[in-house]
Write the C-alpha cells for this entry.
Amino acid sequence: MDECTDRLLDVQVLKFGTYTLRTGLVSPVYVDFREIFGFPDLLCELAELIFQASREAQYELVCGVPYTALPLATCLSITHRLPLLIRRKEAKGYGTKRIVEGKFVPGQTCLIVEDVVTFGTSILDTARILQQAGLKVPRIISAAAMSYGQRTLLPTTAPFATRLLSLMEEKRTNVALAADVLSCAEALALAEELGPEICMFKIHADALGGFDESFHLRLAEIAKRHRFLLFEDRKFADIGSVARRQYEGGIFRISHWADVVTVHAVAGPSALLSLQEACSSTDNGAFIVSEMSCQGSLAVGNYTQAAVEMAKVCRDFVAGFICTSRVTTDPSWVLVTPGVKLQEGGDGQGQQYLTPEEVIGRRGTDVIVVGRGIIDADDRLATAQAYRHAAWQAYEGRVAQI
Ligand code: 5BU
C-alpha cells in the first residue's frame, strides 16, 4: 500500500496543499483521480488493492460510481472476471430507459467502487439505485480513505495528533481508557494492567484521592514503558489568563505531565491560545469539546460547527475534537468519542452509550474512550482486549470501506 501511495504522490494523483473542494470545504489533501488514467499499471495496482481489501465481502457483480471510478470498476471486472454494472446518471429517455446497465438478476450482490469520498452522497445515491433495482449492496469501497499512518504525513496535522496517530498505527489500538477510579493507587494499578492495550490514559486529576507529584511521576514512567499518552480531561472553560493558571499551577500542575487536555469552546479561542503559550512541549496539545455524549447537551448544530472552526486559530496545538459524530471531514484532526460500551444504552444519569462499531465504523470517528465498560468488568484485561479488538476491526473495515 505504501509503495502505491508513493507512486500516487509521484504522478500527482495525490497532492498536499490547500484546496477548496466542490463542497466549499478546505482540504489539506487533494485526490485528482483523473490523473491516474495516464498510468494503466497504477490503475490496475489500485484495483487489485481494492480487490484485496474487499475479499471478505461476498459479491457477484461490481459497479463504479460515475464517472471517475468507472475505470477502477472496469479493471476489477476484467481482472477478476466479475460482471460489470454501469449506473447511469439519468435514465435514458429512449430505448430501454434502464438506469442500471448490465446483466444481473434481483437478489444478486454488488460491490460499489468509488474513487474519493467526501460526504458519500454519490455513493449513497448509487447504493439506493442498485437496491431499488433489487440488488444487495454489502460493501462500498473507496480508494481514498486514509489510514492513521497516512494522516501523520499531512502538513496540517498538529504535533500531538501526529504522535497519537503514529502510536495508534504502531500499537494497533484506538482505545483510550477513562480511568475514573477513586484513588491514585488504583489508577496506577490500572495503568500497569491495561497500559499495553491502550493509546491514551484519561483521568480527572481533581477526582482522584491522594494526588501528589509522586503520582504523576510514576504514571509517566508507566506510560513510557507501556507506550500510551496521558490525557487530563480538564475541560478548561475560563478566560485565557485563569485557564493558564489552572493548567500550570495549583496542586495538579497539569502542564507538567499531561500530553493532552480538553478545552470547551464556550469561552472562545483565548483559553486555547493561553494554554498553547504555557505548554511545556510543542508536542503536546488539546482536544476541543465540540459535542458531548450526555443527554440534552447544548453542544450541537451551530455551536459544534463554530467549535470546529475555532480550532483553525490554533492549528499547532489543537489535535482534534471530542465528538460523537464526524464533525469534520478534514483528516488532519483526530476525532475522539466518549460514551462507548459494547452494548448501547445509558447509565441512568444522562450518559448515552454507542458501540465501537457504530462510532468508529459507521460514524467515522477515530478513538473510543471507555470507562465503566472496562472498569466495572470482572475481568478488566479481557474486557479491554475485547474493546480493543472491536474498535480496531471497525477501523480496519473503514479504511477499506466508507
Ligand atoms: P464512562 O464510564 O465510559 O461513561 O466514562 C466516560 C468518560 O468520558 C468520563 O470520564 C467522562 O468525563 C468523559 N466524557 C464523557 O463521557 N462525555 C463527554 O461528552 C465528554 C467526556 Br467531553
